[in-house]
Fold this sequence. Notes:
- The protein is mostly beta strands.
- The protein has two domains: 3-91, RimM (Elongation Factor Tu (Ef-tu), domain 3); 102-161, PRC-barrel domain (SH3 type barrels, Roll).
- The protein has one helix and twelve strands; from the N terminus they run βββββαβββββββ.
- It has one helix spanning 74-78; strands at residues 6-15, 22-26, 39-44, 47-58, 63-68, 84-88, 109-111, 117-125, 132-137, 140-145, 149-153, 158-161.
- The radius of gyration is 19 Å and the shape is elongated.
Amino acid sequence: MKFDEYFNLGVISKVFSFKGEIVARFDVEVPNLFENLKTLFIEEKGNLVPYFVDKLEPQLNQFVRIKFRGIDSQEQAKKLLKCDLYLPDILLPTLEEDEFYFHEIVGFTAFDEEEKEVGKIVEVYDLPNNPVAEILINEKEVLVPLNLMIELDKKNQKIYIEIPDGLVDL
């Protein structure tokens, strides 16, 4: 399975019960969007392994309680702690042309307001009220708030961002 066809849904954060249930934090604004999932993929040794869901219950604050088939003890569940959860991209709702999921713009080329190439987006961090793109500029990682985005060109994998004076020099 190719990682580029999957998105990171969240991470397993703790064991919930002695019966093997876990609690995961979904990195989505609406966790119950995925409450009818039958399968989740967990990264193990560089591969995505399917885990079948017996029960999934949304909790508060983007947390979800999950019981996987075949994980029946606290010891088995502990082995899954801190593992990333993935789903195929095709399960994401379709967005408008000017909208995007954060994972979609990783790898895009960033340009400033004068259309000069600035660098590549290597990661996006969903910080509260201020998501930022990590852009590799002159071999330096620079965090740029996405609210400074001017234009998005999905077809050509380009993003135009207003780069504040002095930001690159920090």
